Amino acid sequence: MSGVDGVRSVLVRLRTRSGLSADRLRSTEVDVAPMFDLPVVRQVVRTADTPAPEAVVEAIRVIAGQLDVTDLVVVDVALALGILSARFADRPDLADLYAPDVGERRKLLVARWAELHDLLGESRPPKPPTVRTLRLNVEEESLGRLAELCVGSSALDATVAEPDQSRPTVAVIGSAVMDLIFLIDHLPTTSSAAPTDLFEESPGGKGLNHAIASARLGMDVQLIAAVGDDERGRQLLEYLVREGVRVNLIKIAAARTPVVAVFLLRNGGSANVPWMNAAEVRLEPLDFSASAVRTVLESVDAVVLTFEAQAEVVSSALDSLGDQDRKPLVVVRPSPALPNPQVLYEHFSKIDYLVGTQAELRDLLPSAKREITTEELAQSLLTLGVHGVCITEEFGCLVRSEYLQADIAQFPAAMRDTPGAREAFSAALILKLLEKNRKIDEKDLKWATAAMAASQSYGGVADSMPAQAQVDRVVGIPGAKT
């Protein structure tokens, strides 16, 4: 059996004896494969390096915590999960609920029914069942609802380590891909070739690049993305871990990791041919209702969002940010272009800064009937509700916000532009905004602009993201334009 029926069957059979435990999963004759196949379990196994039996118990405890009070009490005692005992550590008497015999556990649950409900804030619980009713009906119904949650839970419903509050904290929502990089003199035309003697594979994706840029500037970074369960996916995860980026909210799909062919021109600029495998490797709107994701988005200082996901995913992410008591700084990189950006207009008031080229930002206004100036573009986006606009071109930027207007000229650079320049800029911008309680000045914008020039590279984009010292050196170059 598979799906809800398979998981329900396993849970019902494992409630007997001492309940659900890692040791029981290892030794039982029950076919527990449906539990090991749950996406949330596979996520814990792969990202936390946890053995499968322990991952099942950890995942079930997390998911059971989302049940209503009565179902939570019944499931906790039936499976001897220890949720109540862990939640109320000052109540050692709760350990009695997890007796090694299921019959004894049932008697204790019936006897303490009202007490346990009251402990969880339910002062008017339903009438307590008899032990017989509990065994024949109530447990199976509650375990069935747990099975539905297990199967429907996002693969991102995993436990999350506490962020390092001594540093600025950032969550980046975007893609992680493997870039296939070709350095060429010119783009080939039809029936022609553009030979190259430089080819390499390198981690990439706007989400990954921004995460690396933020980490190298000293921030505590969580990347929310999806990769395939293949060698390239493992290489991306290992790379992120080496760079100090948290990866436990990266979904791992049983598919091939997306790749992007990147054609870098020697004098600057690039052309991309992405294969995103979006049918199999992607974020879903459901992911932003996952408890682990909500926990992260509610705790970080800043959230970065790219348009590498579908419009409904971007909308779900922005919508989730509007429900929080503590609002993080929200920066959006509107690239690649969405087919119907108008569906996001209702969320524009949640965006603190849009960061992109003139072309990228112009794509947000498809109904404009004529070409508009850079100034008109910025003002149009501000009118739609965003609080700040940063237009970056050739390592310079124009900034228009509710309290600051500035034009920062480019720093000396060997190239006209480079992939990743805007990720370097927005990461540096976020750092200054968080350091200055969101009240930056032109000096801060100049520093963020210098980060673009510091990111110049003919190789992997992520590897070119600068540290603070590199940006400081660019700012200090004699003769730099101001």
UniProtKB/TrEMBL annotation:
Alphabetized SUPFAM superfamilies for the sequence: Ribokinase-like (SSF53613)
Keyword Transferase in annotation: yes
GO molecular-function term, one example from the UniProt record: kinase activity
UniProt keywords, alphabetically: Kinase, Transferase
Domain Carbohydrate kinase PfkB: 169-467
Gene3D superfamilies: 3.40.1190.20
Pfam family, one: PfkB
Cleaved signal peptide residues: none
Family to which this protein belongs: Belongs to the carbohydrate kinase PfkB family.
Name assigned to this protein: PfkB family carbohydrate kinase
